[in-house]
């Protein structure tokens, strides 16, 4: 890790990703760092925050101030102010974050304020969100006046970060320095670090002094930000031209200074290839590396091809570009990693065309220029695709505005390419590791890269691919090692070494597709060498034989467990990798692994070091080679392809292929045009994650349905039904007499979805029904999944087919009643034991059939709407939540808009209905218009009336009747819920949320409060508690959590509830019901335990209870209807704290870690948190006390005696 | 009047020792206790198993969700450069030694031979005046005999005493079949003193939820009686030091413990309840009693009531039980 150092001798090779490499430069060159998390740039901010917490100095010996803002818009404002105030300032961002900064970037550039922002360039949300890399974000900032400097690799990003800062200080033009999100930002590679002296040699202290001299100060008062009239504004804009004219020269000069210091030379436009090239590609970003490799290969064959790598994109130095081109060029292809619909072409293309058109070039002829798009949203750009572009230029009439990398079967713009074309060098070792998220595989690989990259002369590269699930995700690590710098920013397809850390992946995912012929395969197998072979499916056996692979096995799980490391098999497999791959002599490898273990864990615990060392020593003893027979076993089973019973044509045609990892092969025509996808698809995944699933003991069960309530994945459900419905039940299907006085004679069943359960065991934890003679046994116990799978699968199918109870007959006020309502979010990819999803599930149960959800970006939008599937689904009538995600920052306003539209449609329908009253049954019209829809029965009745209305409208065939037919459903009540996390509600979206709540509109807001930005990795928000450690609050948060509920209550007309399902589920149900019934805005703040809290999530409900019992999270409801009646609208639903706050805090790593890293501060913040909890509860008690009686009316003046007649 | 006593070979200005407790975490409180007349301070116990468990748990939670999602490679700040529990303990030990004139006794809690030796050596290096090993053994495995259990404890102690030069005291449980024999065995493996007794935290039941509830209760003076009996029985046999801990809440209990043979007494619960300055009141009480009874030094009356010297040794033995029962007249 290239931690910045004041030590000027610190010039050496290191291995790290571009985010770290860039942060190390930015940190050392700045005094103020304003940050906000956004993928894939967050790591840069996190590094700076941690270095500042450790007191690392910058180049001038001071520790930079690192401040987290509420949004990127806030960051931009702080940067602007910091710059005007004379502080060397920087920030990091990507994607939507950069868009939010744009207004200020105009200001900063307009005021000639030098600074550099580092952007890990990322796609923008359009038809869908993408966290992955392309250049859409930076291209959206073209017009701001910022210079755009592009780096094409980790080393370049490190070097050009310095160039950007130095050139900015010299030129006074702000810089956006960008590199490809993920492919460059997250690729680990070996690079040469710039020392502090290198930095000093390139940065001009005179420029810094000049900048500081321009700082705003009352000692030399000035005025900025004037409002300018038509007389001067234009001239003012033109006044800066010479600064832009000078900029390319300044950048080149700075690059030259860097070259003088480091020997690494860069040009504004670097040309690679044949000196007399005829076909030339122009590109920027990581694709340059791939194109350069292809150019080398083609030129070596004598092809006259070349490449112009663009570094300074804006200002686009036309002359420099033309000078970089060989005179012989005949055809140019300009590749853009972005899309601008409707434009004549993408930005780089347009600049190249413009440069050629207006430049006085020395070219022999006028080359043909075509533009093409590639790589959007981290779509792979392979040598095959690069070669296809060069081949395309051979055509007499090459197609302009082509795409490469996809199959555009709609407009036919895509180029065909050879997906097998390979440029891997023979002396580069290629290794692929398939692992389970969090099993340590990725960490071990990063460590191996460090060992090989830093302890040998070899160069190394690592890139890591994750799926989008938060539970049971698969990771694929792509590692290359070789004697020269590795220029291959694309995934490995032919590996010499393939490892698989989970035997459960065998047959489920095609691990062997990565293996080149003759490759070594390492498999974690609990079977012996011979037994393993017989447990492999036929496809594996056939591939092993056909590709002549060597298979080695190790029972890494057993070794890890024996060494006390649980299921973390990383050290064991890493040792086997070194033993088998031979990249280092075995003895040396083991020494290095042990050394690195000591370095990683030495300060964290000796036992941990010893455990890992023991694992290293035990690993090799257990390594076995499996003898590969000449033929497959006759008895070897074929992997059963997944089936999609009851799936729609779309699911079979599209979703099924995405699930089969064939998404890259999907043609354009298969993808929905407008980002609109069907719901109810998560049920087809059948992820089989759980090693153990709940088993129900009907004899003990008290039928409380709490297990159903708390299940984060809706994988355990309850139904009651007529006994006759049991006809045809599969063997072993359990039921018990339904305990209900109102519905005697019915049967009751609890059923688990065995392939959808994640095994989190929250259901067991919450189950209150114990066997009185053996309290360890409950009505729900966890049991091994595999032996029960077949039977439970049949039971689940039968259970699903049982009729859902009539909603109108269920008690919607009770926990038990709501849990007979069908959950309309199921089997999401949320973490096992997630604290958020049970609330969403309850929401869909209580009002899912009439629910519209506006979902802020975050965890809930990822497990709610990350392809390939969605957990939102429909009931047996085909109704269910309609869900949409707009952005992170705008969710309240977005939901408000949805609400206005729903209201408008209802108002229009009612208006037409009124006009048509004469043509319809007046009783029906009256009933429709006056319907009471406050209950399930009322809504059901209204639905019947709407059906009757439709029938009555059909024959009329008037303009109004046809319009009403289209709008009739709007007469049934809808419920618009605005859902998001605390990062949205407390920080980035707070302004909008406040406005929407203040509007009085009938919208409902559910805040899933995890008290950190969970989705981006646990950064502090204003919801983070005092004393909690989070990223951006490494030393423990020193300020109290914002009391969002109290703020909302100030309006007086907002229903507010603070709930924690694990502490008091009945209060949660009541709050949802009251919020829904309240004729105005409602806000529910729901305590959601989270992996970012650092404790075993199966204890989430107990922790929620402790949170409430300790006063950490008091429960309350504020109902303005009660306040309007003169009562205290505020109901405190939890008693005074019964236990100390420390009892709650001690169980969670987010609090307890501070005790280990800074005990004094932990004690200080702990005491402050305790006092704050006490005061808050006292304040709530005050709010809950009855309001004083209204003052007696002022005494009326004594009546003037009225003489009686 | 001489309140000084010798304990583990350390010369203490008073026989009142602040027992293993959180007082050691706060230098100001430690100074107050010294000012109030404490003869020595025992640091809170470093729980060997707890250290391991905490290290593992912390690492588990820090790493549990790491590297599983493209947007979050971890969920906590990287703490690679911070130090964990034992380091803080040792640093605090150094600070206490630098701050206080009285001896500071470091304390280790555990039952199995293991990482103890390492920690003990580091405590010695950090300046501990002595070590107190808190043997907390709870055998639940029916295959393990009392003999096996004690052998394991003795091996544990032997390893520690063999690895450090500072004196080692051992705090034992009252539930040995022959505490006297065990105390002597401890002495044979190098212990310089024995502390009577460990207080086990007894779990309670919640009879509504059918759950076990761990609980922590502070001691009360009635707990001293058990200590008195065994101090009186053991003290004639032991060459090393004896300390009483558990139930010492006033000068009366201090006097009784010394009469039974204790070289020092440890106070915790009463100081937690009454504050550090209460120690001065206890010490003053001891002084008054000695004055009233004409004792010039603590050593004069130490062991005066032990099994060998007391007027009625049968009162310590089983006959005491019979006597009390028989004297109970309805």
Low-pLDDT runs of 5+ residues of chain A are: 1-11, 1201-1205
Class derived from helix and strand content of chain A:
alpha/beta
Give the amount of beta strand of chain B, in percent: 15-25%
What does the largest sheet of chain B look like? 8 strands, parallel, barrel
Under the CATH scheme, the architecture of chain B is: Alpha-Beta Barrel
Report the span from N to C terminus of chain B: 48 Å
Blueprint (SSEs and pairs):
The complex is a heterodimer of chains A (1205) and B (330).
Chain A: E1 13-17, H1 18-28, E2 32-35, H2 42-53, E3 65-68, H3 72-84, E4 89-93, H4 95-110, E5 116-121, H5 136-139, E6 147-150, H6 154-171, E7 175-180, E8 188-192, H7 196-202, H8 205-213, H9 233-238, H10 241-262, E9 269-273, E10 279-283, H11 287-300, E11 305-310, E12 312-314, H12 318-324, E13 331-336, H13 347-358, E14 368-374, H14 383-392, E15 402-404, E16 414-415, E17 429-436, H15 441-455, E18 459-466, E19 474-482, E20 495-500, E21 515-524, H16 529-535, H17 538-546, E22 550-554, H18 556-562, H19 570-581, H20 586-601, H21 606-621, E23 624-626, H22 649-659, E24 692-696, H23 706-710, E25 716-721, E26 736-737, E27 747-752, H24 762-766, E28 770-771, E29 774-778, E30 780-784, H25 789-801, H26 815-818, H27 837-847, E31 851-855, H28 859-865, E32 882-884, H29 891-915, H30 922-929, H31 936-953, H32 959-967, E33 975-981, H33 982-988, H34 990-998, E34 1004-1009, E35 1012-1013, E36 1019-1020, H35 1044-1049, E37 1055-1059, H36 1065-1077, E38 1082-1087, H37 1100-1109, E39 1116-1118, H38 1120-1124, E40 1130-1132, H39 1141-1145, H40 1149-1157, ...
Parallel strand pairs in A: 2-3, 2-4, 4-5, 5-7, 6-7, 10-11, 10-13, 13-14, 14-15, 15-16, 17-20, 20-21, 21-22, 31-32, 31-33, 33-34, 34-38, 37-38
Antiparallel strand pairs in A: 1-8, 6-12, 8-18, 9-11, 17-19, 18-19, 22-23, 24-30, 25-27, 26-27, 28-29, 35-36, 37-39, 39-40
Chain B: E1 5-7, E2 10-12, E3 16-21, H1 27-35, E4 40-47, H2 48-63, H3 85-99, E5 104-110, H4 116-125, E6 130-135, H5 146-163, E7 168-172, H6 179-188, E8 193-196, E9 204-206, E10 211-213, H7 224-234, E11 241-245, H8 251-260, E12 264-267, H9 269-274, H10 278-292, H11 298-301, H12 318-327
Parallel strand pairs in B: 3-4, 3-12, 4-5, 5-6, 6-7, 7-8, 8-11, 11-12
Antiparallel strand pairs in B: 1-2, 9-10
